[in-house]
Description:
Layout: E1 2-3, E2 9-10, E3 15-21, E4 35-41, E5 50-51, E6 54-57, E7 61-63, E8 66-67, E9 74-78, E10 84-86, E11 91-94, E12 98-106, E13 115-124, E14 131-132, E15 136-139, E16 145-146, E17 150-151, E18 157-161, E19 167-169, E20 174-177, E21 181-189, E22 201-208, E23 216-217, E24 232-233
Parallel strand pairs: 6-13, 15-22
Antiparallel strand pairs: 1-2, 3-4, 5-8, 7-11, 9-12, 10-11, 12-13, 14-17, 16-20, 18-21, 19-20, 21-22, 23-24
Amino acid sequence: VSVSAKGEMTFAGAGNTNIAVSQAATATEDAPAEVTVAVTVKKAAGNALQVKALALKIDGIRPVEVTGGNARAFSYRSNDEKIASVDKEGLVTAHGKGSTTLTVIEAESANYWGQQAETSVTVDVKDAMPLKAAPVAVEFGAAKQQLNITGGNDGKLSYRSLDEKVVSVSAKGEMRFVGAGNTNIAVNQAATATEEAPAEVTVAVTVKKAAGNALQAKALALKIDGVKPVEVTGGNARAFSYRSSDEKI
């Protein structure tokens, strides 16, 4: 404590001390004995701590946001470090889905009592990368192919053909080309412990008509009024029609 010439006290810090008070003699009276006044300045609670709630995704890092307080000498504690941990600088790292409590502790100082405040930390799974696949274009009769999917997470893929008369697809993504036409294969991926399920992707599939096996017809030699079938080999659908270039012959 400091004291002015007029006896005004200014309290500079917590503690105990005395103020000595003296009085001068007058023309008619002696100076009285000095008196000491005990002064106690107690520590204060000061400004209350306030800590903002945090919401992160797995592997995210964010500083603790603290307002208020006095000495600003903080330490930090997480109630569940499997969900979120916090370092001595107040950086929070998210590890697993869930919620936990974060405690901020302000140490006692010369003039202020220590205090602490709690807040919640909520951790959710990460966003997955989008699924991607190039369109598929083949000619009818092509061999089976594996559908190539990139992006996403490590979750299980599932496949669904929107028209199995054009293409069918196995549980492992192997395509079998059934008939000419255009359709799509819908691809989904399951969520994992750390990443969300990505949005469904549709893969365009075009199966073009094929030239197939060439027709071959055997030459015929007949006599007038003779009858003989045309001998045809090759072809595909085997639905034939016939035409003579000269029906007089």
